[in-house]
Structure formats: C-alpha cells, structure tokens
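Q: My labmate handed me this sequence with no annotations at all. I'd like to see what the chain might look like in three dimensions before we decide whether it's worth expressing. Could you predict it?
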Amino acid sequence: MMAGGGTGGHVIPALAVARELRRRGHRPIFVGTRKGLESRLVSPEGFPLEFIEIGPLKRVGVLRAARTLAELPLRVLQARALLRRLSPAAVFSMGGFAAGPVALAACLGRTPLVAMEPNAMPGFTHRWLGRCLTRALLSFPEAGRYFPTSKWEVTGLPVRQEFFELPEKPREEVLTVLVTGGSQGSRTLNEAARESWPLFRHGPVPVRLLHQTGVQACAGLAEAFRASGLEGEVVAFIDDMPGAFARSDLVVSRSGAGAVAELAAAGKPSILVPFPYAADEHQLRNAEAMAAAGAARLVLDREMNGARLYEEVTRLALEPGRLEAMGRAARRLGRPQAARRAADVLEEVAGGGRNGLTRGWGQGNNTL
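A: Here is what I predict for the chain of 368 residues:
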C-alpha cells in the first residue's frame, strides 16, 4: 500500500517504486486524497487508488488545523478498515498529510511500515512516527538523527534514469546558466534574473541564459530578455529538463527534494535558493546539505537579487576547476538504484524477500 500525496514530490517517487514492485509481480495500491496530485497521476499508470480525505496541519490557519485534528481519529479508523479489507503485506509512506492516517493505522495494526524521506529535515508525519517505522529510507544522512540508528539507510530519491546518463559537460567559452524555480516559477529568481541581465551583458564572463519562468511571468520576461542583448531563451516551462541540464554548466534553482535529487543524479553544480516558506525549512536544510558536500552554493531568498546572482555566477566561473569539482561532488550524492532498493526493503519487511513474501502471503494478498 503506497501512502502519501498532495504534491508531485510525494506522488512521483512513489510511482517509481510502485512500477518496480509491479515489475516484480506485486500489486501496489495507492491511498491519497481527491484534492492531491495523486488523483490525476495514479490511475493513468494503472494502479488502484483509494481515498481518505484529510487536510494539512502545517502552515494553515488555526481553524483549519483544529478541524484536521478533530477529523484525525475518524480518518485513522477508516485507514484501519482499509488495511483490514486489503491486508497489505506492507505500507510505504512518502510522507505528507495524506500519508498520516494510513501510516498511523499501520503502526497501530503492526503492519510493516517503510518510509521514504527525501528531505534533510524530515516532514512532520515521519518525525512523529519515527520510532514506529520498520525502516526509513533517506536521501540525506542528516535526517538519520530523527530515526533509530538500526532502522535507517541512505537510498536516495527515485529520479528519471535520463539524469544519471548525462555525461559531464566540458566547459566552453560561453557559460550556459539554467535558472528554474520549478514548474510554477519563482518570483525571487525571476526578478533576480531580470536584474542581472545588464550586469552579465557587460561582465567578464560571456553567458547564455536558459530560464524557466512559469506561465504567469513568461510573456513580460521573454519580451524584456529579447531586448537585453544576451544569448539564450526565456520559456514558461521546459518539457525536456534532462536535455536542459545537459546543455547547462550551472543551475540556479530552488532546493526541493526532487530538484536536489536531479542535480545530484546529473552531477550539476548549482546555486540553491531555498523557498523560505517550505514546511520545517526543509528546503534550507536540503541546500545546507548540498553546500556542505561541496556540490552547491547556498543563497537565502532574502539575499538573492540581480547583483548577488551576477556575483555568484561570475565568481564560480572565474575560479579554475570550481564548477567541475562541484559537479563531481554532486554526482557522488546521486543514488541510481533508489526505487529498486525501496522495493527490496519492502519485500524484506513483508516476508523476508520476494520469494518469502509470495509464499507467506499468497497471490491473492500479495499487495504492497
């Protein structure tokens, strides 16, 4: 049973693990909410989807949080009924409020519970249930202090194989810089990029800029960029992000779990600007971990502007070998077998490996 949803950061890695489980002959079943992204992404993949409606607790108003707490016992009872009906061999949690009732019901019913925690600062659900987990699969060792030592390991987050297959890009005379605030864009990065264009135009390092702005800001920024005299392109959305990484020497990005996992997989040096309102400051902790490994430069959101962006890019470009060293440090953090390892662990906790699971649970209940 795959629990967790709401955002792509929760759903997409769970889908990668579910595909690997299905390839091995198991029957993954998802549980989420109708409002989350899982309601759009799971069914087209051919996986069953059950719903338990629950709201968030973090970064919501007092009344909304109180309503969620009042609903929680009922949602846990619903999750326990679901577990009894489906008899899953194990529960896999990606965290988030959608996973809370199912994960808690698994603990109460002693169903093996495996959590994949993609952030250096674990989310509320996984911190709260830390000692109840059967196993915790982490992206950053810094998160290990929230779980019993014997129960966690670093597996990384599932990332598309195309990122791992990107070759190291040799430096050219013109430095290609990719700026992306995610699919919706980032106001901070959009404004900093616009302010930086005159500085780059007259600076010592020739640059080519590739900028994903999000839909709302694209028209105005694209028009202004055409007048800047710089080489590059400004687009609302990049469909082929591995291709954009392949063309880039340096990436300027937010530091969500998916973003940093892709940077590590591709071995790309980066300037990370954490989203300041992320729950539990998890983007800040991710960026700190990447910077500590020598893979990234960390700039706080309140400090990022055009002058700072220009200064950081120019400094890195002018220091011989710096970008190459950062790229190698990033690649050392990549984990190409994350989905496969998660499937291995689920089989282990469910029945001592794939064969043991099949014999112990039978074809009818071989559900994860």
